[in-house]
Here is the input.
Amino acid sequence: MSILVTGAAGFIGTNLVRNLLSNGEIVIGVDNLCRGSINNIEELIANPNFSFYKIDISNLLEFKNLMVEINARTPITEVWHMAANSDIPAGIEDSFIDLRDTFMTTFNTLSIMKEFGIKVISFASSSAIYGDLGSIPLTESIGPILPISNYGAMKLASEALISAATESYLTKSYIFRFPNVIGVPATHGVMLDFIKRLAQNSSSLQVLGNGTQQKGYLHVDELIDAMLFIKNESSEKVSVFNIGCGDQGITVKDIAKETVRQASPGAEIVYGDGDKGWVGDVPKFIYSIDKLKKLGWSPKLNSAQAVAKAISQIIKQESK
Here is the structure.
């Protein structure tokens, strides 16, 4: 028996696979390496309980052929579906990217699960499904839900597909609505961007927007811990949970200051205009994790602590 992880070479997928393997699970990882990197999982490939395949799961025939081969050796009992386009601005520029990489990967994963009798899915959704609701606390039951990015729209559509599949042929589904998740291996995001810019010009840091954007940040180690906790503790047939830091978040201005402090002390910070970094960016939101706390899980780090830890890790990553 084994676990299938899609997007296994991505930022969150890599950390998830490492954790599952440490718990003695047999893991099958797939990734098209569009956003992920083989370097992220290089150390894991040596583990006899891990098998990795480069494959584009938006191609259903290719996906099915691989599953026939895998299932004959070690039947898959559950899926952790982490594969998606993680570049929100790219999806705004070309909506086909999120249709293919965020929605069709979910559609095909569910089709495969139905055909091969796999009954349990854990899905990486996002706070982006909520859209821009300003200072209204975002709870799992809030509505109407109106995403402002193609990424958020395709994640929400994927949730709907999973809900319908759970009514039909799945026995259990877990929908994890991620906040801004940080840590290593970093592939994108504001901290990596800042560190790269300072590497090019150590005396000045250009910031998109005026720095007032404020969001909660959760370290990836805590995200993985929360997902596994929910999977072990939640009895709902369709378990939908916000996962987050539980605080008001941290501003881009404070992230910039912390990055400069660690990466290039004394560098001038130059801000742009407006409260959005790009089209589709939600400048400020309050993410409620009351449901998760009631289940029994709370984060150990607040947003500022998670950011400081991640910046230190990313600086080391980029110096290699």
Q: What stands out?
A: The mean pLDDT is 93. Residues 184-216+247-284+302-319 form a domain with the UDP-galactose 4-epimerase; domain 1 fold (CATH 3.90.25.10).
